[in-house]
Description:
The chain is α/β, with parallel strands linked by helices and 387 residues long. It has 13 helices and ten strands. The protein is 40% helix and 11% strand. It is globular, with a radius of gyration of 22 Å.
Amino acid sequence: MNALNLVIDFNNMVMRALHTCQTTDDVKIKNFDKQEECDAFMRKTVTDICFVLRAFNPDRVIFACDAKFPWRTDLYKNLDINYKGNREKDLEKNWTNIFKVMDDLKGILANKGFVVTDLENTEADDLAALWKDVILNKQQDNMIYVSSDKDWSQLVCLDDNKHYCIGYNPVINNRGTRKMFVDEKTHKWLNSTDDVDFFMNGFNKAKSKLCDIVRTNSKISVEVIDPQRVLLDKVMCGDDGDNVPAFYEYYKGGRKTRVTPTKAAALFETLNIHSIDDLVSVDADFTLKEALESVMKTTIDIDFGSRLLRQRRMVELKSDLFPKRIVDNFYKHAESVANVGFGNFAEIKMDTILKGTSYEYKGSKNRYNSIFADIDLSKYNKTPALF
């Protein structure tokens, strides 16, 4: 089909809007105690969403939502670590009202014909990976994910049938652009010329549309990343942002020593590792143990095989590593919304989505601009973009 599916990180988009929603035409945002503040927050969020929809005008739009109690929490029970527990709420904000706006928005989007995927114990990251499997493998279509969460970058790919998964970070950077992430294979393909005959055989609609979007939008910059290296770094080094521990860490002289990106790079070079499959194929309890002990300069007494599996389940977005009930629930949901979410979004506006709801804007012409901070993925940059 070569249809373009936009999968949006719902919570990521909402939280960005929350932290940039400070002043509107007639409302001063303080702590979201007042209904008018919540109304402004809703309209700011929907304005940001519409900005992205107009930029890509996809064939289908899907929102992936975070569950309150993610299944990965159970992996941390024996580690004395609270999964994502280092994320503190601003206690001055009325979170009850904020969460109500979020729940209301999910209902509004679903009623307007969008796909809203919100499943028990399942994070948006997992949903993005599962939707990628459906979109690229089952539907033979293409996917652009919208998130500033760098975890999602491991999904970027171009399959053998020329179906792509590309990332888009809606956060504007210090150069005044928003980054689109592709891997090296996709980048070369997008810059290649297809053989098209008189009858348009060989024409790839999705490729042509994507190239047109990038070439005509000076605010989008393409960056080539290595998604496998992103994943490998997370498996070995952990992630402080999500409270994910490193593959190995110990205390020396009262100071914590852990696998760092530099140590991980030395390990990968020693073992000639370029992908997660390369790492998995290494004899964990012998080859990996010997190489890591050399890099860490200490004797390591752990079960390397089980430790590697633990790290992968914490950070890798692959359905084989998810609990079976999570996968089963998702596929039931995907089948139930198989014909939902399609439309023309070229001219969509905030008023279109909120019309007929209690959040509909009834004041003067609104000025809810998209204002984002930058999320830097430059350390994974492989080559400069050609367009």
